[in-house]
Amino acid sequence: MNRQRRRWLQALAQALACAALPWSLGHAASAAVTRPRIALIIDDLGHALEAGQRVVRLPGRVTGAVLPHTPHAARLAEAVQAAGHEVMLHLPMQPAVPGVPIGPGGIYLDTQRAELRETLDAALASVPHVVGVNNHMGSGVTRHPGLMLWLMEELADRQPLYWVDSRTTAETVAEQKAHALRVPALRRDVFLDHEATPEGVARQFARLQLLARARGSAVGIGHPYPVTLAFLEQALPQLARAGFDLVTPTELLLAAPARAPGA
User: Fold this and answer.
1) Which of 197, 198, 207 minimizes the C-alpha distance to 234?
2) Domains, in order of start, for the chain
3) Separation in Å, CA 8 to CA 79, 173, 201, 237
4) Is residue 150 within 8 Å of residue 180, measured between CB atoms?
5) CA-CA distance, 59 to 65, in Å (whole number)?
6) Which of 109, 133, 161, 213 has its CA 20 to 30 A from that of 103?
7) CA–CA separation, 67 vs 123, rounded Å?
8) Mean pLDDT, residues 182-200 taken together
9) Cβ-proximal residues to 154 (8 Å cutoff; 6+ apart), any chain
10) pTM of the entire predicted model
């Protein structure tokens, strides 16, 4: 066994042991309680075909968020849908730091109302089978009330599209505007690979499980990094045995109302 694979397995064992402890202690008293649910979204699909295909092969109902107008966007969206997973549009948005490239099909701070509608239409046309939208970057745009109101008006006109706030800034108003327009909405609880190491992914995966146990559900976002995919290939088959259900964002939204902002 090579050293990197040994690190993945050691990190996985630590994550599952950490997350399983509260469940083992309380399981006898709470057997009738609904199993905690996790929705897992993998962002940034569309540029790299091999990494995207590896995401499609992940076990369980992993959601693929596809960047518009990327070389493999349509092909990977078709593969995600054919595998029985949900497809999201990973909509590029301007970050707070000026000059950072966000890729084609994005929303900027100076985007006008009609331009936003055209941008969204073109992005949706480039990614088949979309059922929801989340933001790619966007720490500048998602804190802008006017732009987020316009976006949610467009999503409301395209129901049943849902919104997942990636929360790239604590100042985001995107979820608040979604609720105001009655757009079904969730928010990201954990980024799995902000620290893209086996240990970092394992810590965040354990945190995702602890939050799901405490709240009943949690939403995690990862990226098609080799370290993330290697970890999930080992970890996801063990989730059910650890007492979790891996579900789609739609299943979370149908099961219960989204948490209010700040909850």
Assistant:
1) 198
2) 35-255 (3.20.20.370)
3) 27, 36, 9, 15
4) no
5) 16
6) 161
7) 8
8) 97
9) 116, 117, 120
10) 0.86
